[in-house]
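Follow-up to my post from last week.
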Amino acid sequence: MSNISDKIQKLFPDYAVEEANVPIFTVPQEKWHDTAVALRDTADLALDYLVTIVGMDWTENLGAIYYLMSTKYDTIVGFKVLAAGDRQQPYIPSVADVWHVAGLYEREVYDFFGIIFIGNPDMRRLFLNIDWVGYPFRKDYDADPALNPVSIESERQSDFTDVYSLDENGKVVKGERRIFEKDDFVVNIGPQHPATHGVLRFRTAVDGETIKKIDVYMGYIHRGVEKLCENLMYPQTLHFMDRLDYFSAHNYHHALCMIIEKAAGIEISRRAQVIRVMMDELSRIASHCLFIGTYCMDLGATTMLFYTLRVREQILDIMEKTCGARMTFNYDCIGGVMQDLAPDFVQDVKALLATLPANLKEYNDVFTGNIIAKNRLEGVGVLSREDAIAYGVTGPSGRASGWACDMRKLQPYSIYPELDFEEVVATEGDSMARFKCRLHEIEQSAKILEQLVDNIPEGECCVKVPKMLKLPVGRWFQVTEGCRGAFGLYLESDGSAKPYRLKIAPPCLPQAAVVDHITRGQKIADLITIGGSMDYIVPDIDR
Amino acid sequence: MQDLSFITDWINISLRSIMPGWLAVTTECVLIGIGLLLVYALLALFYIYYERKVCAAFQCRLGPNRVGPMGLLQSFADMFKMLIKEIIHLDHIDRFLFALAPYLVIIASMLAFAVLPWGNGLQVLNFNIGIFFLLAVSSIGVLGILLAGWSSNNKFTLIGSLRSGAQMVSYELSIGLSVITMVCLAGTMSVEGIVAEQENLWFIFKGHIPAIIAFIIYMIAGTAETNRGPFDLPEAESELTAGYHTEYSGIHFGFFYLAEYLNLFIVSGVASLLFFGGWMPLHIPGWESFNHIMDYIPSVVWFCGKAIALSFIIIWFKWTFPRLRIDQLLSLEWKYLLPINLVNLVLMVLIIVFNWHF
Amino acid sequence: MEVTTKSMPYEAWKDNEYIEKLVNELRENGTNVVVGSLDKLINWGRSNSLWPLTFATSCCGIEFVSLGAARFDMARFGWEVARSSPRQADFMMVAGTIVLRMVPVFRRLYDQLAEPKYVIACGSCAISGGPFRNSYHVAKGIEDIVPVDVFVPGCPPRPEAMIYGIMQLSRKVKVERFFGGVNRQEKQEEFLAAHPVDGVND
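User reply:
Got it. Predicted complex:
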């Protein structure tokens, strides 16, 4: 870590550095764009993956923290940029041309904080509707329901997007740009559509059956989790993690518990760590099983869903015995896990591991080897490694494009460094590769479980933590591996019992954003194939 | 093998004895109409139940089992509900065509019922181009689907119906060619004639290789004709919500729903007529006593049994295979099935000319 | 008259006061024999053929998928014909949070359902906003948006609870009257009159 700090300081000696668990440099906003290009292109740094942009409101000024990662050196570093202008119209230069995914993250920051990104080609609201009053994540946001009432009238729809630029006097000027061409045949797919995996909306310009352009609309399940967390004490924030990506409930819980423990300096017992990892891997198997099922169902092979849910039910049984719930477990807590394992946990996991290979073989027999499935999946929606990085597509979807982005390996946490498992990487980058990656990941998760199931150490499952947990002032950032990719958490504390800001960087947002890029020129049916193979969960996108 | 025409003859004679000829004919027509409608409705309901049970069995489930014994009344409940469900009137549509479309679809499948050989002597219409008539009327259905999609004034239905149009027109070729192949073997287009030709041996055995090829192609094309998976693109749930009938509700939707199952029956009925002898019992040359025993099974049972068994295969397709994409669907037809079919036709002609069949 | 369910003892249902009230109302009003038995037939059909609309926004939707799967198998009751088009569905299982941006879409879907239509609020988000109640972008329960027939609590409700909820709906359908009198249609009309939508034609 210090290594990268030195390198950057050598390159930009006048940038102040703040040592947190991830070093943060402060960059003046007028130099930000040039700095960004340099950071990406300098061979020594090669910070080519933008993990997330954290919008911030420090009451006296607004700003953003960019977390960058190098796919070459696996280093991670943050850059803090304060917005220029007053609170009415704060602005920062856009870096959408440096990292593709930045375009979308900037829209998110604009939506929540009202920070305008100069030069972003598409500066619309992302989650909230076009006529929303105010910027909800600002500390002075007026939450009066009279301003934004519950309305049953359809939201206003605009075919134009805003583009902002600076004129010669340094004033912000607003421009307009057409989203679709004038005579495009635009089909609205979603938000209520059986194949969008929830309530995502695609406005799709088609030419016959061929897709010309897709405009993704999100926010149909935006619940404002990050804002809600700011008014809750640390242990109370945990339960929201279950409800983001409800398949990675354990993984997300694990991540948040870990960052809070790190901030508070709590050491948890090894037993708790092993239990957490086992639960993570069980969820991963269950999640990928459901993916296989729903994906096959989207493609028309309904029966597969029932075969995969069989395994999922078996895992849910194991979880239910220990956690007491089928879906929203709320099992990991600060200091360990809520309660000890159920007596027959080991036995059940062994039974699961025994049946898993036969089930996987069946999936391959029924679907993977099928000629129709091959024709539908192979070569469809090819995402190159460069694009995967530029768009920030992580998880099995990114690994299918040849980008080894498993955070369990890159940013080792918990007991993962001690475990023996392979990172599944494919090079084709098509839908079939994404599908197969998940199939193989089930095997790897099973391998991890096999190593752990007989070696659960004795000990207490939860250490004592003060009820009123207060964190020291500071900021922490951590990336972990959810079932669908890199799950980033940013926590800023002002020393009280509530987080000042808790930013969730979900893996699914870039995956939904990349759909437009890889569906162009494909058929409408391929939209389902590609969208399904990305396996995004809409509540995770919208938070 | 008992000839069921004595029943129809008896009805005809007794009707003519009490009323003038024209009235007798009218009465017979009405009776047949009512009978057909009844069979039609019951068959559709049975098929809905049948598919739900079969699909449940594939998916390790139980399927309907609460309404009536073993869930047998489930589809009746569905029908009652559908009959009294609201029919939504839409603005900005072509009302006449919108209302006409479901009737076209249902009429197409009903007309096809007229020439199916239900049993020995149980056939509504018997004329020398029966199979041709069948092909002709079954293409009316696509008109209904196109109209439904177009008149709904909805983008999804429009895409669905255009897909359907392309699909039906293409696969009609395959169906036609494989029918012609079998007509060559039979030497007649009359349905009764085709059945009679198979008295000694069913065509699938008699015509061996080309007949089997024709059968496979017919089953694939037939599945496509009925818009069922893996060829269910016009109503691909995950792509087009409900495809061409997205905007239909109540009994209008019910007509589409019933017609889908009836078409399934018709396709498998025609397959059993062309390849498995229609109502003709299984006869093997030389096994006289066996043939005699087979004759004791009523011909209606033979026909329906064969049709239902063949439908099972089509249902099996649906619940196993993923859906094709539209370009793959068309290239399957034009690049593979059609050339194979043409070669197969030549092969069949050669076999007939050189008398290589059994 | 009792609202019975096949192979379930009546005692299992006794605690539903709302339906008992409807039954009493039916009993007091009296009815014509012909109309009464016709009603019975129609209600038998309707109550046994409830087709859901595939509508899910979040976690509860996944439990709804589990409900269709082999273990819970809602096909036993004839509910498995999930229609994607609202025109062909009978009831809407509101599985998940309804946020402000979704409200118009959700209401439009409800308006597009063909009569008779029913709504089940499934899970605490749909009932009251659940854990997200304090959020700036979450509707505090769907009761203000559409008339709700059955509430199924839970976060998410277990599939068994969902089965119980749909069975309660089925019972409720059984005490409807097609030709006026005791029905929920009047209540629905009142509701819609109080919550008009402008600009939505379908």
